[in-house]
Amino acid sequence: MKVWSSKELPADWFKRQKADEKAAQALQDSVRAIIAQVRKDGDGALLELALKFDKATLTPQTLRVSAKEIKEAYQKVSPKQIAALQFMKARVETFQRRLLTQTDITTQIDGITVQTILRPLESVGCYIPGGQAAYPSTVAMTVVPAKVAGVPRVVVCSPSDSEGKVNSLVLVAADICGVDEVYKVGGAQAIAALAYGTDTIAPVRKIVGPGSKYVTEAKVQVSMDVAIDMPAGPSEVLILADESADARLIAYDMASQAEHGTDSVAGLITTSDKLAKQVQETVGKIALEANRGDKIQGSLANYGFIVTCKTMEEAVALTNQFAAEHLEVMTADAKELVAKLTAGLILVGSYSPVPLSDYVSGTNHVLPTGAFAKSFSGLSVFDFMRRVSIVECSKAGLEKAAESIRVLTDAENLPNHYKAIAVRLTK
Predict the structure, then answer these.
(1) Does one domain contain both 366 and 250?
(2) Which of 246, 308, 326, 369 suits a disulfide with 237, CB 3.0-4.6 Å?
(3) Quick one: 46 and 183 in the same domain?
C-alpha cells in the first residue's frame, strides 16, 4: 500500500488507474462490436454471447426468467435471507418516499402561477452484476426507487451461470421488490438489449446500475440514445481521520472495501502520523488472515493508499480533490466538517461504516466513482422521474410582464414572440 506525506504527493496521486490508451481503445472497440452485434442480430446475438461469456445454453424462450424459476428460487434461500431482503427493501422504500414529500412546489408571482410536478419514466432497465458474487442488495437499490417513483415497467438484466440460472437471491430480491421482467443477460450485450431492444426484450427509457468495465463502457456508448444514471467504475472508500480515530476500525473498513476486487480503492487521509502507521500495520495483518485475502491484498497493493497531512485544512482539500464514492469521517469535529466535504456519500462517526449504507441505512449504494461526485449524485427516486412545470398566467400578470418581454424579444430579433403577447392584451 502506498504511503505518502502531503508534501511528497505525486501530481496524479488521485487518479484511480493509470491510463492505458491501447487497452482503453481495445475495450471501446470490443464493446462497440458487441453492441453492433446485438442491434443487428437481436436475440440470436444474446444467445451466442451467453454461450461465449457465461457458458450458458439458452433459447429465446428461456431468456426471460419464468414465474416457476422465481418460485424455485425461494426454496433455495433461507427464511433469514428473505427477512433481511424485506428489511432492506423497507428501509430504502421509506427513505425514498420521504424524499418525495419535499417536492411539491407551487409559486405565485404577480399573477403568474408556476407549479412543478414529477412524472415517472415509462420504463427502466436495472443491471445487476453477477459472476463471482451475487448482489441482491443492488436489486433493492435500483428497483425500489423506480417503483416508488411509479415507473410502470421495471426490467432487470443479470448474467446466468453455466446452467442458465440467475442467482436465487437475486431472483428472490427481484420478486420482493416488484420487478416486472427479469432476463438472463449480462455484460455489454445486456446494456445493448436494454437500449435498442430485441425480439424478446423491449427497449427501456433509462438504464441504471453498476457493472464491469464492459458494462460501464457500454452504458457510455449507448448514452447518446438512451439515458443512463452515471459513469461508475470500481468501488472506493476514502477515510478522513484525526488522532481521535480508532485505527482498528479504519483498517477493517479499508479491508471490507478492498474485498470487492483488486481494482477497488481504499484510502486514508489523516493528520496523525501515529494513526497512519497503526492503520498500515493493522490492515496488513487483516489482509493476510482474512477470507478473500487475495483480493484484499491485490486491491491494497494496486490502489490502497495513506496520506498524512500537517493540518485538517490540507486534509480536507485533498479529500475534496479525490471526491470519493464513499467518504467516512472519523474526526473529533466530524459534524462540523461535513459542510466542507465533497463525496458521493458521507458517513459520519465511528458507527457509520460503508456496509451500513450498502444495505440498510435507506440511502442508495449506487454512487458516482472516479471523482464524478463533483458533478453527479447517488441514485434516488428522482432519477426515475421527469420534472414538468405548469404555468398559468392571468391577463393582469401578462400585462405586467409585457414590457420586459417586448424589450427582450427586440434584443433577440424575435418580433413575432412579442406579437403573441400583444394580441392577447388587445382582446
Answers:
(1) yes
(2) 326
(3) yes
For residues 55 and 198, membership in a common domain is answered with yes
Residue 32 lies in a domain: no
326 tagged catalytic: yes
Range of the domain at 265: 2-19+234-374
Residues 6 or more apart from 371 whose CB is under 8 A from it?
Answer: 14, 321, 322, 323
- Does 214 share its domain with 288? no
Q: Domain ends where: 203, 228, 253?
A: 228
Tell me 426's DSSP state: T
Residue type, 249: L
Secondary structure (3-state) at 329 = strand
- List 217, 259, 325, 328, catalytic entry: 325
pTM > 0.90: yes or no: yes
CB 88 within 8 A of CB 137: yes
Q: pLDDT tens digits for the chain (427 residues)?
A: 999 999 999 988 887 766 678 888 999 999 999 999 999 999 999 999 999 999 999 999 999 999 999 999 999 999 999 999 999 999 999 999 999 887 778 999 999 999 999 999 999 999 999 876 789 999 999 999 999 999 999 999 999 999 999 999 999 999 999 999 999 999 999 999 999 999 999 999 999 999 989 999 999 999 999 999 987 778 999 999 999 999 999 999 999 999 988 989 999 999 999 999 999 999 999 999 999 999 999 999 999 999 999 999 999 999 999 999 999 999 999 999 999 999 999 999 999 999 999 999 999 999 999 999 999 999 999 999 999 999 999 999 999 999 999 999 999 999 999 999 999 998 7
**In terms of domains, do 63 and 188 share one?**
yes
| CA dihedral sign, ordered 131, 185, 128, 177 | negative
Q: Looking at the 3D structure of the chain, how many domains does it have?
A: 3
The residue annotated as part of the active site, out of 93, 236, 326, 328, is: 326
CA 40 to chain centre: 29
